[in-house]
Specification:
34% of the residues lie in helices and 21% in strands. The protein is of the alpha/beta class.
Length: 574
């Protein structure tokens, strides 16, 4: 067990079972593990042999559909999907099958990507107590566990709140607390920060870091955006087509990516990538030359400030000139709440969308972005206010839960569902599957897809309806860095074709290079709309990584491309 610092907040002693299971050297041992989904000729996991040290935090990464979610579910026996499973699974020295019993099931915690999918009850207190009650603990023990856990997570003042009043970030912290109140030995997290805004993401990972440091819990976390997780991780496992393409320490992983042509180089934190691009961190250099934090990256830029001050000949990119464009959609003084006596979610929101623009709606979890998009699509009626839409608009909306649009038994059937209504045929379906790299999943059941694969399938279904106004709520959620870049290219093509798009995302680095304008939603209002570069340049916290790295050093840098282009020009001059 990881030794606790003397001044660390004490966590309750583990149960008798938990103490016994610590005789094992490893938390998890996998030997020649393979898994194949029904009606699939391809292995989702292909002869994996891995060992996870007790008390370590393992980052699991790789492309969408590489097997990350499948591996996490196989590590939790009661969540193992239907299919053919071969090989050995040893968890804390025992066969994994033993963890299917009611007694041991609770020793493995699982936090999903979508906070709402895991919450069962209506209040925070009841949600935290649910597992303990099912375990048969006395009321006194339950209250002690709740008091201790809520204090550790800083949520004591939430206990009487309704779950419906929590933001997405708060719900995910509640899910983490609900898992850890059971005092599991193994905690599995499947892209838990994918739907969180930047500030909520950092808070969640800070709490997870405390759990790692102070409890000795073994943590396996799957994520695509790894910048904020790497400083907490002990090791990294990268999967490709169900097999291990890398397994080792964080520094070795960075060296591996920078020294090879691995397509996942773009997943390296920008602070490290800019240094690697400048020649540091290559073979013969120390790993310390690759900074993982914004602070360390700023030190590098400050050191080279004089050389980088000279702008390259390449002009700074500009946003689309919208001054002569017509208004395609106007929202005027919108008010909305979900229940009669509930607080208003929208409180006088007003917004104008120009023809052919890509407009980003940004803001924290619970600020009202998704509700505003539902009302703009007329999926919800505003209680007050008015929406004016230009005539002849074909509107498609993709909400943040792609499973809500699935009703068929295969990806191909999903995409063929509306062929008569929207006049497309199988050749159109084949074309969109090839464009979004879904062809190999054509016969897979949509519910058996990874989060990223679900996103792409839902997007394909929306595009087949041939809209000229497309509303996208968190379309990059669950996508790996390569798939994000592919989606970026698709959105550029759609914009060049004249399509108008409204997009919600928490990935500020992604949207900063695509959006023409950005609007900040706060407390149910649109608090400001500006040109994309102006928006991110003026913000101190809700801004891009490149801006946080360069602010006060290189004042004209806003996007990742800006920064890397400046560094390339430095190398060219050298």
């Amino acid at each position: 067990i990881v030794k606790k610092k003397e001044n660390a907040q004490r966590i309750a002693p583990r149960s008798e079972y938990q103490s016994d299971c610590y005789d094992s050297v490893y938390a998890v041992e996998l030997e020649d593990l393979s898994f194949t989904y029904p009606n699939s000729g391809q292995k989702a996991l292909d002869n994996l042999s891995l060992r996870f040290e007790r008390g370590s935090l393992i980052l699991l990464t790789g492309a969408s559909g590489s097997g990350k979610t499948t591996l996490l579910r196989v590590l939790a026996p009661v969540l193992t999907p239907a299919g053919e499973l071969n090989g050995n699974r040893i968890i804390y020295g025992e066969e994994a099958a033993s963890y299917e019993s009611a007694e041991k099931t609770v020793q493995i915690g699982f936090v999903q990507q979508n906070p709402d999918n895991q919450i069962i009850l209506d209040s925070v207190w009841h949600e935290l107590a649910f597992g303990l009650e099912n375990k048969g603990l006395s009321q006194q023990d339950i209250e002690r566990r709740l008091a201790e856990t809520s204090t550790f997570f800083g949520i004591s003042d939430w206990m009487d709140r309704k779950v419906s009043e929590l933001s997405g970030g708060e719900k995910q912290i509640l899910n983490l607390a609900s898992s850890l109140v059971m005092q599991p030995d193994l905690l599995l997290l499947d892209e838990p920060i994918a739907q969180l805004d930047p500030i909520s993401r950092k808070r969640f990972l800070s709490l997870l870091g405390r759990v790692h440091d102070e409890t000795g819990t073994t943590i396996v976390i799957s994520e695509h955006v790894i910048d904020d997780i790497l400083p907490h991780a002990d090791s990294v496992i990268q999967l490709e087509a169900g097999a291990v393409s890398f397994s080792g320490g964080v520094e070795a992983y960075l060296r591996h990516l920078t020294a090879t042509d691995d397509k996942f180089q773009i997943s390296i934190p920008l602070s490290a990538r800019m240094v690697a691009q400048n020649g540091a961190g290559s073979e013969g250099e120390t790993e310390a030359a690759l900074p993982l934090t914004v602070r360390a990256g700023r030190q590098f830029l400050q050191k080279h400030k004089a050389e980088l001050a000279t702008k390259p000949e390449t002009p700074t990119p500009t946003s689309l000139d919208l001054s002569q464009r017509t208004n395609i959609l106007e929202a005027r003084d919108l008010w909305f709440r979900y229940e009669k006596d509930a607080p208003f979610v929208l409180r006088g929101a007003s917004l104008t969308i120009k023809e052919g623009e890509l407009h980003a709606l940004l803001g924290g979890n619970g600020s009202g972005k998704s509700t505003l998009m539902y009302i703009l699509s007329r999926s919800l009626p505003a209680l007050r206010g008015k929406i004016v839409r230009a005539p002849g608009q074909e509107v498609a909306m993709l909400n943040q839960n792609p499973m809500s649009v699935f009703s068929q038994d295969s990806v191909r059937a999903e995409l063929m569902e509306f062929r008569q209504r929207f006049s497309y045929d199988e050749s159109d379906v084949n074309s969109i599957m090839e464009r979004l790299n879904l062809t190999h999943l054509a016969e897979r059941h949509p519910y058996d897809l990874s989060g990223g694969e679900m996103q792409k399938t839902a997007l394909a279904k929306a595009l087949l309806t041939k809209p000229n106004l497309l509303l996208l709520d968190e379309p990059v959620k669950g996508l790996d860095p390569v798939a994000r870049r592919e989606l970026s290219q698709i959105l550029v093509e759609l914009k060049e074709s004249g399509m108008t798009m409204i997009l919600i995302t928490h990935d500020l680095d992604f949207i900063s290079q695509l959006a023409d304008r950005c609007s900040l939603i706060f407390d149910g209002r649109v608090e400001g709309t500006a040109d994309s570069r102006e928006f991110f340049a003026d913000n101190a916290y809700f801004t891009t990584t490149a801006r946080r790295l360069s602010k006060g050093i290189l004042p004209d840098i806003v996007t990742e491309d800006d920064l890397l282009e400046r560094l390339r020009s430095l190398n060219d001059r050298s």
